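Appendix B. Chain record.
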Amino acid sequence: IKMNFWIASKYFFSLNNGSIINIISVITIIGITFSTLSMIFVLSVFNGFEQLVTNLHKEHIPNLKIEPVTGVYFSIDSIIDKNVNETVIDKLKKYNTIIFSEVLEQEIILEHQKSINDSVETLKSFSKIKGVDKNYNYVTNLSNYLIVESNKYNFFDFNNLNFIVVGLDIASKLNLSVANTYEEASKQKKLLNVWNLKTSKRKPELIKNYGFVNTGIYSISPDFDNYIYCSIEEARHILDKPNYCSSIELRAKDSSFKNLKKLIQKDLGDEFVVKDFKEQMPFLYKMVNTEKIAVYLIFILIVIVTMITLVGSMSIFLLQKKEDMFILACLGSSIKKIKNIFFLWGQIIIFSSIFLGVILGLFLCYVQDNFKIIKIHGNFIVDYYPVKINFMDTFYIIILVFLIGLITSFYVSRKKYFYKNLPFH
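Structure tokens predicted for this chain:
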């Protein structure tokens, strides 16, 4: 084996003599190197975008979210452990490392009667009402996303059940401002109402309530700017769901989310599902994973096409080394040993290409991460391509390129055509 490897390495390091076979071999190395480099960089960009989205949403999306397995709502008074007469809330209160908030959410139509030039124009928009309790800001840091705040009224003061905050999208559609005076608040309470979409008649029904006072406008992203937040007591009154929740959102004080998720799931049983960050945004992560799979498939095709040059260079190389094969056969080498020499030569090309590709790919990721040299043109949240190196992706790329190269070099080196008429004993 050592002799086979020594001969193969001598062949490899003689690639600088300028012959056509050596030029083709160098082109093969460059092609495989570039394919490996590109795979590492492109997948690192995907990981970078995933991390960017996670960082954008991790503040306002809870660490864990508890929802009923069947149905939309569940009663917080229902007993889930008959042995000790405990409810969901009782179970959660036992955990000292979490803060949780009861949430009631439903689609609605928000109506605002706006005075324009001595006339009243009624503006309506589909929205989602989200009733939350006093712990909600500690769970999601909603206050950090307020872009306009009332100087007089604070939404998180739940002594007044009529206070709300609205998303920028809803505020724009309804031409809705923030109440900074008692007069503005009084006017809004008369002109800002809710239409409930879920009725027995299957038609929107105007809910008669005391009206709302908008105390702030928040902005997170277009997907989340169509909510109005109110106290959960008011939401239960509007939706006629006393003591009901659609979910319970919680934030953990430590980072052991996976273990905590398992413990809570075990405590709550099969009637509830505990969702982590990724499970709360399934569409996003399915899209990212699908695109990564598509990238893998595209690059597999590119690597396979690149390996055609390896087939060509190995074939020419084998034909060129007929004289060397004859000498080795005369010296007593078996056909298996000679085949292994050229198989190892192909493997050295693959290993050197992978090594160069990985080093250059990681270096390019490092440069992009620190110097942001490749820019994104257009209106986006960042003006450069973010990157995050995932060493498992790098490992998979190495294995992928190695296996394709292994199969290619093994196939070519075993072709009987190249070993005809040799004096094997």
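Further analysis of this model is presented in Appendix C.
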